[in-house]
Amino acid sequence: MKITRQNNELTISIPDNIMSLGEIQELIDYIKFRSITSKSKASQKDIDNLSKEIDESWWNKNKPKFIK
Predict the structure, then answer these.
(1) How high is the pLDDT of residue 37?
(2) Gap between the Cα atoms of 62 and 68, Å rounded
(3) Would you give the end-to-end CA distance of the chain in angstroms?
(4) What is the distance between the alpha carbons of residues 51 and 43, in angstroms, rounded to a whole number?
(5) Which residues fall within 8 angstroms of residue 29, CB to CB, at 6 or more apart?
(6) Which of 31, 51, 54, 55 lies closest to 42, judged by CA?
(7) 3-state class of 45 per DSSP?
(8) Per the confidence metrics, is the pTM higher than 0.70?
């Protein structure tokens, strides 16, 4: 593996046999997540409230699939 830094960018070279495409996609998704959340001004309380709201909305929409 080789990591280089140039013009405020990191380049990571990984041998093609060390990770599956799925694992590489997970790594890319994580890096995107970190990039997006690093700019967030949301508090942990805001995030917890949003998560609760999403969970409740999902459950209300999908409850009939689980409870008959």
Answers:
(1) 86
(2) 11
(3) 53
(4) 12
(5) none
(6) 51
(7) helix
(8) no
What's the pLDDT at 6?
A: 94
pLDDT band at 62 (very low <50, low <70, confident <90, very high): very high
Cα gap 54→28, rounded to integer Å: 24
d(CA 2, CA 13): 5
Helix (H) or strand (E) holding 54: helix 44-66
Q: Which of 9, 11, 27 is nearest to 19 (CA)?
A: 27
User: pLDDT tens digit string along 5-61?
Assistant: 999 999 999 888 898 999 999 999 999 999 988 888 999 999 999 999 999 999 999
